[in-house]
Amino acid sequence: MGAGRSTSGSIAAYARRGGAAAIALTLLALVACDLWVAGFRGWWDRHSLTGSIVASLLVVGATGLIFDEAIARHQRRDRATSVAVQGMILYAQARQAFRAVVAEIGRASDSDDALEQVRPLANMVLSASPSLFDDTQARLFLDRLQRLMGSMIRTLAKPPAGGAAGDARKRLETEMAQLQASAEPLRARLPAEYRSMLDEPLV
After folding, report:
1. Smallest Cα–Cα separation from 114: which of 96, 127, 126?
2. What ranges in the chain are assigned the alpha helix state H?
3. How far is CA 203 from the centre of its chain?
4. Which of 160, 101, 92, 151 is CA-nearest to residue 121?
5. Which single residue of 62, 116, 144, 164 could bond 179 by disulfide (Cβ 3.0 to 4.6 Å)?
């Protein structure tokens, strides 16, 4: 479904650009003919009503395409910000889950703290995935997040011991660093006052 919406949006954008290019080329051709082709200029002089109608239609078409493109750009900008906000909400929860899971590694006694952080993260990912999938940068972020979440779930399902605990911690830290890198482009879309969450220490 997400891929279908993305394809439809691309087709609409290409159609707008193609229409704008066609109108621009038509206007250039008419101006060139009017300047350098005497017979063409004379024909339009004898058919002033037709010339006025054609000129009006071209102006209306160009205006409509410009207005449509302006609206589309505004919508894309709003959507980009909305996607970034969703991504940062997921990122904040992923950081909490990461801290809890890392703290759980090597702990002698069992605790449900980490599981209580991972469970809501999984639910949030399921809800936000359709919105993030349409955005190229958000889709990469989503892929990194799913990888990290899978590693955290495996770590909790089979707690590592001994030397394996250190390896598990390193793997999670590497995947968390990759997630943070993929979150940077989303953070850049937000106002400066909302970007500080990525600068906080993980542990």
Report:
1. 96
2. 2-36, 38-46, 48-104, 113-133, 136-157, 163-187
3. 29
4. 92
5. 144
- The amino acid present at 93, given as its one-letter code, is Q
Q: What is the per-residue pLDDT across 154-169, written as a single tens digit (0 to 9) for each?
A: 988 888 877 688 888 9
C-alpha–C-alpha distance, residues 40 and 50, integer Å:
13
pTM: 0.66
167 alpha-carbon distance from chain centroid: 33
Block residue for tokens 């009006």: 56
Q: Which two tokens stand for residue 194?
A: 């909302």
Of residues 153, 190, 178, 180, the one with CA closest to residue 168 = 153
Residue 1 has pLDDT above 50, yes or no: no
**HSE (side-chain half, CA atoms, 13 Å) at 92:** 10
